[in-house]
Amino acid sequence: MIINIEELKNLSEKQVEVKLNIEQLPDLTLIQPVKGALNLSVEGYGINIEGEFTTEVAVNCDRCLQEFSYPLDIAVDEKLIFGKLVDEQIKEFELTGENFVEDLADKEEIDLTEFIYQEIILNIPSQKLCDFACEGTEEYKKVKIDGLVDPRLEIFKKLSEEN
Predict the structure, then answer these.
(1) CA 162 to CA 44: how far, in whole Å?
(2) Model confidence at 108: pLDDT above 90
(3) Residue 120 above 90 pLDDT?
C-alpha cells in the first residue's frame, strides 16, 4: 500500500483516510487480518499519521517454544518530516522528545505496509509467554530447578563465594 507524497500534498483537504484490511505481511504469521484506519495529513513540518488498528499474530513462547496467538491493539501517532532531521555536517546531535520522528528526505512515497509491519514488530513484547505460569521445556525446568550454570561462568560463582 503506497501513498505518493506529492499526490497527498495536492489533495484539496491535504489528508486521506486509509481503511486497513491486510491479510498477509512478510515475515509475520497473521491469525487475524490487520483491521483499522489510518489518517495521513499534511502539516507544515511534514506528514502526520494517526489512527489505530488491531490484529493477532502467531508468536512462539520463550519458555515452552509452542506457538500461540498474541492479540495487538495499536494506536498510531507518528510524524514524518520533510527534509532531514540532522544536517550531515553535524557530527554530534542530542535527541530530545520532539526529535523522535522519521525524515522523508529524498523519498517520494510512503509504504504503509512497511509502516504497519514496523508498528506490529515494535508492539510485540521482547519476552513472549503463552501463559504467566508456563512451565517451559524440560531443559528450561532443569535449569530452573538445578540452577545449571554455563561452566565458563563458574569462576564468577567462586568469586562471589569468596566475598
Answers:
(1) 64
(2) no
(3) yes
Q: How many CB atoms are closer than 10 A to CB 131?
A: 11
- β-partners of residue 36 are 20, 53
Is 139 in a helix, a strand, or coil?
Answer: helix
pLDDT at 51 over 90: yes
Cβ atoms < 10 Å from Cβ of 140? 15
Tell me the Ramachandran region of residue 83: left when phi exceeds 0, alpha when psi lies from -120 to 50, beta otherwise. Answer: left
Do the bridges between strand 102-103 and strand 109-111 make them parallel or antiparallel, or are there none, so unpaired?
Answer: unpaired
pLDDT for 122 beyond 60: yes
Buried residues in 8-34 as b, exposed as e (16+ CB within 10 A): beeeeeeeeeeebebeebeebeeeeeb
Cell numbers representing residue 125 in the block: 513484547
